[in-house]
Amino acid sequence: MHAVPPLEQDTDGASVAGSPAHAATQNAAHATSATAAHARAPGHAANDAPVRDLRRVGIHPDHWYPLAWSHEVKRGKTHGVTFAGDPIVLARTESGKVFALEDRCAHRQVPLHQGVVDGESIRCGYHGWTYDCSGKCVDVPYLGRDRLPNGVRSYPCQEVEGLIFVFPGKAELAEKRPLPKLGSVADGKYKTRRFGRPVNCHYSFMHENLMDMNHQFLHRKQMGQMRARSLGRRRGEGWVEVDYTFARMAGQQPIGEAIVFGQSRKTSDNNDKDVMTIRTEYPYQTLQIRTTEQTLVMDLWIVYVPLDREQRTNRTFGLLSIRKPGIPGVLNLAWPLLVWFTERIFKEDREIVEAEQRAHDLQGADWNHEVFPVINELRALLREGGAPDLVVGAGTGDTAVIRFWDSRHGNPLANT
Ligand code: FES
Ligand SMILES: [Fe+2]
Questions:
Q1: What are the Low complexity biased-composition ranges (predicted)?
Q2: Cβ proximity of 73 and 164 under 8 Å
Q3: Probe residue for ligand 1, chosen from 78, 124, 140, 152 as the CB with the greatest number of ligand atoms within 8 Å
Q4: Atom of ligand 1 nearest to the CA of 127
């Protein structure tokens, strides 16, 4: 059985770092001395209120999430994806329109992505039941059209800037919820790199990794010795953001970084005047760098979409926009270097957050000892924004409840 540690340790300083081995001691102390800071009940905050393990908070489905790049969904083809374990089929019709349905045939439940696009519909690959873009069954080859069964669920779907967004939550909320602003991707003054891949961790580790610039040590081989300084943080309804400056302590400016700024700098000159602002606006994240002249030189928009039911894997979709320098073509020439540089950094981040996830699964609970206030605010935001009543991550020892977001309205048998 796993011990359950305190989940938040931000109010009583660094002196009470717990460890799995010390959990029993802490629990015993709680019984005898309720006032001692380190005697907090396991899984409880300072006021003794229960705290949800952030790594088991499901992402909230009532937002727009990209589930594929446009180029992955070819004309006249289906494409199977998942959102937090829910199978969804994307289809691009002969006319080029994209739509999203639950990825199951109402008949025998086989995935519709194994079927074929037929005009503006999907025809199941087994007996040929056919569904239009609203999920309505419009043809069963061996039944009369007056006896058609109910169809399957459809999802609101929009294609913007090379991304296919789906609204996996309550469809009636989709219209009220605008699509996110995608950084500077639509601005001709910027060139944008589209990137991302699956990462085997809960999405919250990704948010924390990007917002916590104190981990420059991890990137020392790529970046040289950089020191981040937090200038301050702000918090509002549904968002938190933080500003940083950076000082180079030693080493040369890497070429990839120079490309971002459109100029090369030597050691520790004025790059500590540039300001990086990182913002989580649930469920998205942005990172912007502005020079002293307030020129936005880098604008990153990114989101981490859970793939599996336990939300231990996410697919990252990132749009990295770099302001074009004065001399046309320079950025195009330098682009492969920028790609190489950002891939190296991304790989280091991916490996370390996957290590965090493995540690969480091994320990069966969240033993993180976070000392940076920004990250504790971020964690609170992700908890508040997360799905209600949804506990994910079963199989790690002490979580028995998984409530699925049921994509099949009512009894599936009633639909057929
Ligand atoms: S399983 Fe799809 S048509 Fe029969
Ligand atoms: Fe990083």
A1: 21-46
A2: yes
A3: 124
A4: 3
- Supply the CATH number for residue 264's domain: 3.90.380.10
CB neighbours (10 Å) of residue 330?
13
Answer whether 379's CB lies under 8 Å from 204's CB.
yes
Query: CA-CA distance, 350 to 217, in Å (whole number)?
Result: 15
Q: At what angle do helices 203-211 and 373-385 cross, to 10 degrees?
A: 150
**Distance between Cα 130 and ligand 1 center (Å):** 9
Instruction: Give CA torsion, residues 340, 186, 313, 218, to 10 deg.
Output: 40
* Closest-approaching ligand to the CA atom of 107: 1
Quote the longest CA-to-CA distance of the chain.
Answer: 77
Atom of ligand 1 nearest to the CA of 112: 2
Task: Please name the residue whose Cα sits nearest to atom 3 of ligand 1.
Answer: 127
Same domain flag for 293 and 370: yes
Residues in the chain: 416
Query: Do 224 and 218 contact (CB within 8 A), yes or no?
Result: no
Sheet holding 157-160, edge to edge: 65-69, 163-166, 157-160
Tell me the CA distances in angstroms from 47 to 9, 35, 58, 259, 389, one per residue in order.
12, 10, 24, 49, 22
Tens of pLDDT along the chain (416 residues)?
Answer: 344 344 444 333 333 344 554 443 444 334 334 344 444 544 556 665 667 899 999 999 999 999 999 999 999 999 999 999 999 999 999 999 999 999 999 999 999 999 999 999 999 999 999 999 999 999 999 987 788 888 999 999 999 999 999 999 999 999 999 999 999 999 999 999 999 889 999 999 999 999 999 998 899 888 777 788 999 999 999 999 999 998 877 667 777 777 776 654 444 455 568 899 999 999 999 999 999 899 999 999 999 999 999 999 999 999 999 999 888 788 888 888 888 888 999 999 999 999 999 999 999 888 888 999 999 999 999 999 999 866 665 443 333 333 332 333 333 322 32
Pocket lining for ligand 1, CB < 6 angstroms: 105, 107-108, 110, 124, 126-129
One domain for residues 268 and 232 = yes
Q: Do 204 and 212 touch, CB atoms closer than 8 A?
A: no
Whether 312 and 205 map to the same domain: the answer is yes
